[in-house]
Design brief:
This protein has 111 residues and is α+β, with helices and mostly antiparallel strands. It contains three helices and two strands. A two-stranded antiparallel sheet has the order 1-2.
């Protein structure tokens, strides 16, 4: 059973985020920012893409995938931080698309 503090935190999070538009798709961030007249979601998305860009390598048509690499579908998760209502975007890969190495423990986080 959750403690009173956990229940209050969950309640406040629901109240705060239910009144603010939370995008589900990348297309939604453009519509929300256009309606609000700000660039908060676009900036959060651009920051995440810039941070993870180093992990990706675009292959030319004549190159093959290196041994040990796998295909995985990625998607964005959008969130609003409770402390300062900061817009956050995270690019995550679907765990069901990859074979997880045995060296990883159950503490690793996947979408």
């Amino acid at each position: 059973m959750p403690s009173k503090r956990e229940m209050l935190s969950f309640y406040l999070w629901n109240v705060a985020t239910s009144s603010l538009p939370l995008p589900k798709l990348v297309d939604d961030i453009l519509a929300i920012d256009k309606r609000s007249g700000s660039t908060l979601w676009v900036d959060a998305n651009a920051k995440e893409i810039q941070n993870v860009r180093v992990a990706f390598d675009t292959l030319e048509e004549d190159r093959t995938v290196l041994h040990g690499f796998q295909f995985a579908k990625c998607h964005m998760i959008f969130d609003i931080k409770m402390e300062d209502f900061h817009c956050k975007a995270c690019l995550v890969a679907g765990r069901h698309m990859t074979n997880v190495p045995t060296t990883y423990t159950h503490k690793c986080r996947y979408a």
